[in-house]
Amino acid sequence: MEVVYPGHVKLTDKEKTNICYLSFPDSNSGCMGDTQFHFRIRRCPGRRSVVQAHTDYNKDCPAALQSVVLLSKLPFVTLYNYIVSVIAPEYFDNGEPCLEAACHDIDQWPDPCPGETLNLPIMGTVVQVRLPSRSDKVLTSPQIKNPSVPTMPANNILPSVSEVDVYSAFLPVLPHIQMLWELVLIGEPLVVMANSPTICSGTVQALVSTIWPFKYCMDFRPYFTIHDSEFREYTTKTQAPPAVILGVTNPFFAKTLQHWPHVLRIGELAVSSPKTINKLKKVGTIKTLDSKPGYPDKEASGGSECNALKRYLLELTQSFMIPLERYVASLMPLQRNISPHKGPPRLKSFDTEAFLKTIEHSGPQLTSGLKGDWIALYRRFFRSGNFEGWLRFRQEEVNQKLQALHLEVLCQADLLTWIQDKQEVEIVDLILRLREKLAKINENQLPVSNDMLSRLQHHHDMIVCSLPEDLQSVLKSNHGN
Amino acid sequence: MAVIEIKLCLLGDSGVGKSSIVHRFVYDSFRPYMENTIGAAFLTKTMIVEGRTYKFQIWDTAGQEKYRALAPMYYRGAAAAIIVYDITRESSFHAVKLWLAELKRHASPNIVLAIAGNKNDLEDLREVSYQEAQDCAKSHGAIMIETSAKSAINVASLFVEIGRRLSNLDMTMSLPSSNSNALNVNQRTGQDVKGRRKCCGF
Q1: Which domains does chain B show, CATH number per domain?
Q2: Is A467 helix (H, G, I), strand (E, B) or coil?
């Protein structure tokens, strides 16, 4: 590793080794010229989260193979690929001052905030990009409003920070798209073999995006090499293959991962290659749904092929997701059961069997028109990390909402009247509960308006004042700690 | 009112006061000891000139030699460039001529050029005469103005003048027969230079 910017960044030796191996071709398979791709590495213990890297290497002169790697925790694949494509050629021409300048620019970038349009200066240009937000309307990615055409365009507008071109990525395997969607959804081990890191990383990224708005919760490595520190862990034959998606280029993997259930081979897309081999090898019967012939119907969606494919995948995912959401909604406690005198209610637990019963009469077969064993697909999904991740997220979200509702009820309740005929113990209990709420608000765990906060504080203070003085002083001294 | 985004870069030798001019323009403040710029600093400022709203995207480049090769990134696609020299340093004015030649060759042909002779509060130490700079600017069709970032002299006028030229250019470009109008622009610029000289009290 020649240089690292910014200088204060510390990488462990293991991280360095991984980055170095991942930044260059893993085999001698013939890709020429500059190559751009991205990969993910595991951070060393104590440094949580996975890092995405975006690489551009210059192969014009093999003796002086050079790579520019951009590391980030954020999954903004499209943005970073663009940024690397700006930095790398300048670095290859002008060397280190270029990285210094680039880091200096990046240092000035504002913090990412969902839904905001950011202007990011980088090496003489300004990249304008909008960060996605959960409230975004599906598929109609909001346009960045473009101020009147300037004398000279000052900005480069990127349509998205993270959206990949699924159509180009899946073009060679389009007939298998529904099966691929199933495999990703239920978290099956899957390896993508391609001739170049660009193709395998693009395909892996496209794969994990197929189940959006579900989040793919397992590990995935858009580009994985035989030198990776997880090589042994992921290729072991003594255990079942791990639930990960790997992108590889080294032919050696064909042997190493022979025992894997699903292998996706993507042939060379370039015209130079006479034979295009694109196939999906699978062991056993995994496919649970019948595929619908004639997919994707371009005319029906009336858009570009890419949008048609996105819509197809989204509809498939939504057909699967809606019954789950509906069931979660049924687990919500009733509004009238939220009482100011009790603790906040919580979401009832998810009972998979009870859920599957609801599928019989209102399952996805109705919305998607796809026949097949949906129940089996759900059962596999329940065993996957995707379900676990989705459920945890929904639970947190719902429980937070319930906390907020409870808080609102608490603020509106006439607590002073309520305590009039109550025992001191009960009143103290209420005070402690109020304090717990206030503490949570102060830790920013509950979304609450200033007005509500002051009302809650007022309630608290009034109730404390209503108590005998000796108890008041005990409570006050307690509060100080 | 639509905002017109303008890429603008500052070029010139190290220590002539490029960053100080930008700081005066953007924050209306002055720091006597500015640290060296790394690569280029990026700042924005919105200004209304002749009814048009311009948002200047300012790339304040580093003057140090080691960043010299990066300059094309900053003037590429720029609608305006300010070349700064220090009136108390002859060598920095010599660099202006080199920048002018480079921009003529590689920058956009419509680029609005401005030459700023900074530190004009240090009259006693002057090495570059006003007339010499004025002649140089005229031969390149550039705006020429002496500034002092320290005393806040002419810094705003520098950007206003650039805005004016840009709006003239805008008008010319939106009209079908641009030949006759291009002439007009040149004539008007000539008058502007004279007028400003008077108002700045030279």
Answers
A1: 2-200 (3.40.50.300)
A2: coil
Q: What percent of chain A has pLDDT over 90?
A: 27
Residues 124-153 of B with CB under 8 A from A: none
Question: Does the CB of B56 have a partner CB in chain A at under 8 Å?
Answer: no
Between A374-382 and A385-412, two packed helices, what is the crossing angle to 10 degrees? 80
CB contact under 8 A, A105 and B42: yes
* ipTM of the modeled complex: 0.79
| DSSP one-letter string for A111-161 | PP-TT-EEEEEETTEEEEEE---TTSPSS-PPPPP--S--SS--EEE-S-S
For residue B109, what is the nearest residue in chain A, using CA coordinates?
A: A152
H helical segments located in A268-304: 298-301
A105 and B78 within 8 Å at the Cβ level: the answer is no
Token pair belonging to B197: 């000289």
Is A148 an interface residue toward B (CB < 8 Å)?
Answer: yes
Q: Can you give the pTM of this predicted structure?
A: 0.80
Name, in order, each residue with C-beta under 8 angstroms of A199's C-beta and a sequence gap of 6 or more: A266, A269
Q: Do A90 and B2 touch (CB under 8 A)?
A: no
**Residue A446 and residue B52: Cα distance in Å, rounded?**
45
What contacts A294, CB < 8 A, 6 or more positions away?
Answer: none
Distance between CA atoms of residues B130 and B201, nearest Å: 12
Query: Chain A contacts of B6, Cβ < 8 Å?
Result: 150-152, 154
Task: Give the pair of three-digit tokens for residue A282.
Answer: 């699978």
Pick the closest to residue A321 from A360, A371, A374 (CA basis).
Answer: A374
Instruction: Give pLDDT tens digits for A125-134.
Output: 999 888 888 7
Ordered by start, the domain boundaries in chain A are 1-107, 111-163, 165-390, 414-478
Q: Do A90 and B76 lie within an 8 Å CB cutoff?
A: no
Amino acid identity, position B172? T
- The whole-angstrom separation of Cα B136 and Cα B123 is 20
* Tens-place pLDDT, residues B176-199: 333 333 333 333 333 333 333 333
C-alpha distance across the termini of chain B, in Å: 37
State the smallest CA–CA distance between residue B198 and chain A in angstroms. Answer: 31
Query: Which residues in chain A have their CB less than 8 angstroms from residue B168's CB?
Result: none
Question: What burial class does residue A379 get, using C-beta atoms within 10 Å of its C-beta: 0-12 exposed, 13-18 middle, 19+ buried?
Answer: middle
